[in-house]
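Handout, page 2. Input:
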Amino acid sequence: MTQITKPLAALALAASLALPVSAQTITVGLSLPETMEGFDFVNGMYRTFAEQVEANSDMTVNMVYGGALGSPSDRLTQMRRGAIEMTDAADGNYASIFSDIMVLNMPYLFPSEQTAWAVLDGPFGDAMAESLLETTGVRVLGWWESGGFKHFSANRMIESPADMEGLKMRVLGPLATIPVEAMGASASPVAFGELYTALSTGVVDGQDNSVSVFNLIRLYEVQSHLVMSGHVYAFGPLGISDAFFSSLSAENQQVIMDAAEAAIAYNRETSRAVEASAIARAEEAGVTVVRPSDEQRAAFRDVMQPAAIEWLRENVDHPDLIDGALAAVARAE
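Output:
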């Protein structure tokens, strides 16, 4: 956060906590403005949660939009300390305090969104959630989809790992850097707010994000090709402060769990619909959307996944989860 936004976030948090609310008010800190076209799979998910909670209990939900309570990492810290009850921090934010979650960022772990849901909603996801709770004090109510898979874009056709040779790619973190470099590209950690300019001026040649994010910052103006590589599934834990959750009556705990189930269902359905419309919008803007075959995707996987696994085995707390995740996917297919 900048020196300007830090005090603004502090004032927003103080103001939200000063509101005349009951002891069972759930304050949710969100990144996006209240209305953001193409991203209702996030805010709409929390709106669904709030509607269900307030319709079925005496609890209230106080939504604070637009990053007014600080960065995702700031809000995650606030939730763990009990200053707020929930936030939309995603997988990357949790990785700094719970390294095992990075196993789920393994390239080409999930062949489809439906397989990802089956694994996350099944025994493997439940065990991951329990471990996250023990480590961080955050209870996972479900796993939400953050726009689906990430895809590569560039100003040339990319149909194989060899086509990445020599490109400067904007990716963040070692688990994204190492697989990209294994394909012969160089990685550059450009800040999100600088990405459009970096692409338009040639500081970097390409990037990876969900199609929703690609359109959000108008990358169709500076990138000619969008490759539906689907190499990493973007997700987030629908987390709540366990200290708060545990203080509730059994009846209200059930209300929250039921509301979370409805919210996740809304999120996933909306995310799938949003991606479909986002792809169409990119094509309408003149972007060539490349849809690799199964064989082409396998070629990317065969280069990217081993490099990532090697790094993961040295950098997560429980490396056995790597084989566990691969086995869980095999069972779910």
